[in-house]
Amino acid sequence: MGYRIAVVGATGNVGREMLNVLAEREFPAGEVYAIASRRSQGTEVSFGEKTLKCHDLGKFDFSKVDFCLMSAGSAVSKEWSPKIGAKGCIVIDNSSCWRYDQDVPLVVPEVNPDDAALHEGIIANPNCSTMQLVPLLMALRDSVGLERVIVDTYQSVSGTGAEAVAELEGQIRAHADGRRPEANVYPHPIGFNALPEIDVFRDDGYSKEEWKVIVESRKILHLPDLRVSCTAVRVPVFFAHSEAVHVETTEQITPDRARELFAAVPGVVVEDDPTAHRYPLATHAAGRDEVFVGRVRADASRDDGRGLAFWVVSDNLRKGAATNAVQIAELVTRRGWLAPARARAGAAS
Amino acid sequence: MGYRIAVVGATGNVGREMLNVLAEREFPAGEVYAIASRRSQGTEVSFGEKTLKCHDLGKFDFSKVDFCLMSAGSAVSKEWSPKIGAKGCIVIDNSSCWRYDQDVPLVVPEVNPDDAALHEGIIANPNCSTMQLVPLLMALRDSVGLERVIVDTYQSVSGTGAEAVAELEGQIRAHADGRRPEANVYPHPIGFNALPEIDVFRDDGYSKEEWKVIVESRKILHLPDLRVSCTAVRVPVFFAHSEAVHVETTEQITPDRARELFAAVPGVVVEDDPTAHRYPLATHAAGRDEVFVGRVRADASRDDGRGLAFWVVSDNLRKGAATNAVQIAELVTRRGWLAPARARAGAAS
Fold it and tell me: What ipTM is given for this predicted complex?
């Protein structure tokens, strides 16, 4: 039999990758449905060796599926996730709509799996920039304690969507042909530039992307007072986000010990031999599920052994989105958390 | 009459820009000589509307010139700068060869002009990544005190040289044609990637580029104990370096006050209206002499008003190299510091 799964937003960058990951990981799926807006109805998408026709979100009966992996933006999620969840289908949502709701778990299976048990029909998938960071921060939290984190990002255009990938492709072609670049998706050309604007700006001068890294890290790590700062920057890279990270720890830690701790985290790969030009790279991480970390060193701005600097890279569409969503579904099935938490509590009492 | 100036390394990216800047700023030059290695002898370079033929470094008589603007790498500078300086010609050297020598001034005219008075024939021009940072750090040092600086860079390929610009161009063309990129200048493709390797690596895990930012900032700012950390990253941008900066100050400071202080520094332009998509950008800064700063905000990892985050962009070939070198020459002539410091002291006593 297997589980019945609906992928909402199946024609988008992340939706397509969700279908790829479900097929690759051999998730025990009985039926898989591709769902999209009416506009994309009839569009065909790949699921392993099969081809799926997209169903209309407005007409699909979610009572017949166990999981809805949703990557259709906050507006769609806000309207649909509660309705779908009420039909007994667990929504694993990739938008930012529910992440900050205290009743909705925000889960990275390697970091806070038990939070998933508390779901009432919706589980939120973290932002890509947060996702690749928290497994490493967890390792430090559990060994030497975390005081403060500064992270500056080098984010790929695929995080914006297929239209942004096409825009960078167009600007590359324009450059090769000696034409002026056209910019529609981003406010300035992304080709051969670094744009310090991702998502909208808040009154405090931070972009919402930067704020997500701050707030989501605290929630996932269960460190509500963790001091975090971030500058989020879009660079002309197609796939995978890179991050320069500077951490202050409560107790002393050496780079060697940090590498040991990082290597012990499931899904993390240490690539760290800079003199041999070996360190994480966006072009190497693209298409992979792991979080790659390297350039681990004692932070030069601390002389007391309580600072670390490192470089983290991961594919924003894979571990940063689709893979983590599928891992959440795997976690829920493995632990028997399909029913909402209150229903399970009622059944147990 | 005017001053007689030799530009050594005149066929390189920075050397050509030095000639451009000398012409544009109407430096009172009587004679300008383009000097290069024997290999480039006879090559023609532009100086304003004129064309100059390159002279052979090995045969040129430096006793007939007042200034030698040198951008020919550390090995050439190590051999030639002392010889040229001994002939009564002031060497303004763009390599890292003399920057850390305690007898050689390392000068940014807006920041530490008086240090230039101490020269004994050689004045060092700082590294591009340091150059654009220190005018802003100076403003904070002088108003609220500086405790700690973390800077992560987004550096353009022109900093590596003309061959790196050609390599990125080649990789763009390869991408447009569906061919595999070739990488010779960098250890990995720079096209559509972020490389956390600039210059060689030290035993402590920092790259020499990162170490330069740390050590040069301390020397220029006269803060030998300033705590600084840096991750230096090459991105697929042609001209201008961008930097994400996080600063801890001794006293409290608001973003508004920081913007006022920054705007008052000569050569600094505040571009800071992010909701209108206005912030410093590499493509806007290219070809300009100013240091552009924006995204100024209270650093979210400090809750005591003693942290600032901002984004700094400047053209690495202009203010980051050529313009600063010419400004040093202007400073020396304006203040009458042409003779070496000891000679001036002898004449005065």
Answer: 0.96
